[in-house]
Amino acid sequence: MKYDILEPLKDHLQTYLTPQTAKKYYASAVKLFRNDVNIDVVNWSEDDIKIRLDCIRGKNEFSAAKNALLHMKEIYPDFKIPDEKYFHEQSLKRKNRSKKQKDICLDSTKRKINQISDPRLKYAYRLALCSGLRVSELAAVEAKDIYFREDGIIEVTVTHGKGGSNGIVICERDDYLYSKLGEYVKNHQEGPMFYSSNTLQKRANELGIECHDLRRIFAITTRNKLKQNMPIEEANAIVQGKLRHARFSTTKRYLFNRKLKFKEKK
Q1: Alpha carbon separation from 193 to 47, 181, 187, 199, 257 (Å, rounded)
Q2: Which residue, 102, 164, 176, 219, has most beta carbons within 10 Å?
């Protein structure tokens, strides 16, 4: 594989995508062409690409490879890749490797977060719980992005949302966070407020927490609260909007793939 061919792809991805997504797509491209040390992959035929794609078993991995190829096509217009029909048909044939998912416990998750002494971790995780922000979005938050309303509600302006899902996020009420984060912001006016996404994920894992589950907790608790006063379809639509998903099929993964327990069984 000629890395001079993939280096422009790396720069392109880092320019137009979030760091995490850019890293994922670039890694997929490297894996796709890893054994081709002396071949100019830009001159490959569609069949050459299909042979490599056929070796990919997982649906998520296949999707990442597809997106990497589409971005390569933007850089190299003469690069030959399969058409959308092929990608669609092949995607339907693949499944993600599934593992048995454990229930999420709201009580223990909150307790673990509240026991953290490092404010850059504690406030980031609490903000995730009341906002539904992705970990990559948390890592990009700066002081200028946070607005403390007079009614005690926090608003966060997302400027590095996944797939361009930017906008103003209105958080659920958290009086403790409103007070403590307000003080913290005053002393951290420059640069990101929290750690990098990798550090946030790593430290959460050390505590027995998955950052993705904080977004799930937000989705489920928000839906439970809303459906008390409106039809379930309307509550679902509001949660989809709050998570900034283009399709409800994506939101369903947050609402139904894991069960939320509110307390540990004794």
Answers
A1: 47, 10, 10, 13, 31
A2: 219
* pLDDT given at position 156: 96
Rounded-to-integer distance, Cα 156 and Cα 15, Å? 23
pLDDT tops 70 at residue 164: yes
CATH architecture, domain 104-261: Orthogonal Bundle (1.10)
> What's the order of all strands across the beta sheet hosting 154-158?
146-148, 154-158, 167-170
Kindly tell me the burial class for residue 14, based on how many C-beta atoms sit within 10 Å of its own C-beta (0-12, 13-18, 19 or more). middle
- Per the CB < 8 A criterion, the answer to whether 56 and 62 are in contact is yes
Q: Helices 232-243 and 211-226 meet at what angle, rounded to 10?
A: 150
Query: Hunting for tokens 């990098």 — which residue is that?
Result: 196
Digit-coded pLDDT (tens) for 121-159: 999 999 999 999 999 999 999 999 999 999 999 999 998
**Selection from 136, 128, 134 nearest residue 154 by Cα:** 128
Percent of the chain with pLDDT over 90: 57
pLDDT of residue 1: 46
Residue 101 contacts residue 72 (beta carbons within 8 Å):
no
pLDDT in tens, 151-160: 999 999 998 8
- Provide the CB-side half-sphere exposure for 201 (13 A, CA): 10
Strand pairing of 146-148 and 154-158?
antiparallel
Q: Determine contact, residues 13/25, Cβ cutoff 8 Å.
A: yes
Using DSSP's 3-state secondary structure scheme, residue 158 falls into: strand
